[in-house]
Amino acid sequence: MTTTQQPYGEGNFGFGTEQVHAGEIVDGDFGARITPIYLTAGFLFDSFDHAQERFAGEDGGLVYTRYGNPTNTAVEAKLTALERGVDSLLVGSGQAAITVALLGILQSGDHFLSTPSLYEGSKTLFRENFARLGIEVEFVSDPHDLAEWRRRVRPNTRAVYGETIPNPKNDLIDLDLIAGFAREQGLPFVVDSTASTPYLIRPIEHGANIVVHSASKFLSGHGASLAGVVVDGGTFDWGRHPQRFPQFSAPAGGPGSPSYVERFGAKAYLEYTRTIIAGRFGPTLSPFNAFLLQQGLETLSLRIERHCRNALAVASWLEQQPEVLSVDYPGLPSNPSYPIAVRDYPRGTGSVFGFTLRGGVDDARTVVDSVELFSRMSHMGDVRSLILHPGSTSHAHLSEQQREQLGIHPGLVRLSIGIEDEPDLIADLERAFGALRSATTAEPAHEPAAPAERVVFH
Ligand SMILES: Cc1ncc(COP(=O)(O)O)c(C=O)c1O
Predict the structure, then answer these.
(1) How far apart are CA 123 and CA 95, in angstroms?
(2) What is the number of the ligand 1 atom nearest to the C-alpha of 163?
(3) 440: CA distance to ligand 1 center in Å?
(4) For a substitution probing ligand 1, which of 129, 194, 197, 211 has the most ligand atoms within 8 Å of its CB?
(5) How many CA atoms lie within 13 A of 85 on its CB side?
(6) What are the boundaries of each domain within the chain?
(7) Which fold has domain 15-297?
(8) First to last CA, the chain
(9) Which pTM does this prediction carry?
(10) Whose CA is nearest to atom 6 of ligand 1?
(11) What topology does CATH give the domain 300-454?
(12) Tell me: the pLDDT tens digits for 151-198?
């Protein structure tokens, strides 16, 4: 039961209204206003026949939480509306979302193309884990070069992958260009929109077919739990390519039975991915964590507005500091991605970005150790501001040469700007830069205290 007659996700309401109301289930028994946490492994069958009908999927009811749960379903409906998709699937983490989204499409012997600048965890997943499953990834060198995309297509290419605001370099991709290429080649385009969220961009409206998120980040927002989501745009015609994607066109339940395309139409991909991939590999999201995600989503636009405003202020301040070589924030006019930012991201370009210190790793160490308000953490999209040195942490497994190629210089520091007050964040960085300056002068103005004593906000 919902509270309005008008459907969500079709432009009847504004983003703020949809983030609060879309998908909500008003409990029919007690009138609980917030969709409750249905912490149950399974669901009762009234009778022998009822159980049989449920397993056959005849009445659309729930069977077992690995395949669906009312709390998760409500959050999925909210995300479907916000992304303008046809259906969504919640899973236990962003990594699980990327994995099941691609395993719904790819099988051993397949090849897929990806943009080069991606979250490092996705790269290692593709290069190492997918390789062990016989699935080969190929990263294009220049995602803006249509000719290169075309040149790299092979007879066994089955998907195209990219990130809206790539983590950590923020070198924005041109979604429309890559979507046009994927469409021309008859390939589904899968986009990780973790750093942007549907408030900043809806990849489906730019031609993506499937959207994934680490919902552990901005969507949940409070850094309390992990979650992931796969959103199906319903826009890829799987039935047109039965040789390439036989899983959607072959009889799903033995000879003569309907295929996923025949049975589920535009939702064929998501249904297959829910039941055959996630349902069997099993990365189920706990309804408890789905509830935390639901709470986070209700304030998404408010938080993102503040995140973006703070990030632009901090990036502008950093750009003026003599110790800073460059700031990778696409909202700055000096950034190479600024034209795409202006065209595609009118509400802002998120709040995760790196900046490079001239003094290399020594300067990075001083800044990371001197902040008080920023938390030294591997995470992003949290209400709290976070700081990390990628070269010695998330990208430490790469060679120095590989890091240089990716723009992960020794002096690169990554920030995830939270929703605290902007003057406090800048004051914290001013203190850290003061420590930097005093460390390089003979007579230090003040000694930075040992980090362990200063960690008061963690
Ligand atoms: C862009 C992006 N995608 C996916 C992930 C993985 O998400 P999770 O940590 O929820 O598995 C991350 C994690 O940082 C990320 O930054």
Answers:
(1) 11
(2) 1
(3) 37
(4) 194
(5) 29
(6) 15-297, 300-454
(7) Aspartate Aminotransferase; domain 2 (3.40.640)
(8) 41
(9) 0.94
(10) 94
(11) Aspartate Aminotransferase, domain 1 (3.90.1150)
(12) 999 999 999 999 999 988 899 999 999 999 999 999 999 999 999 999
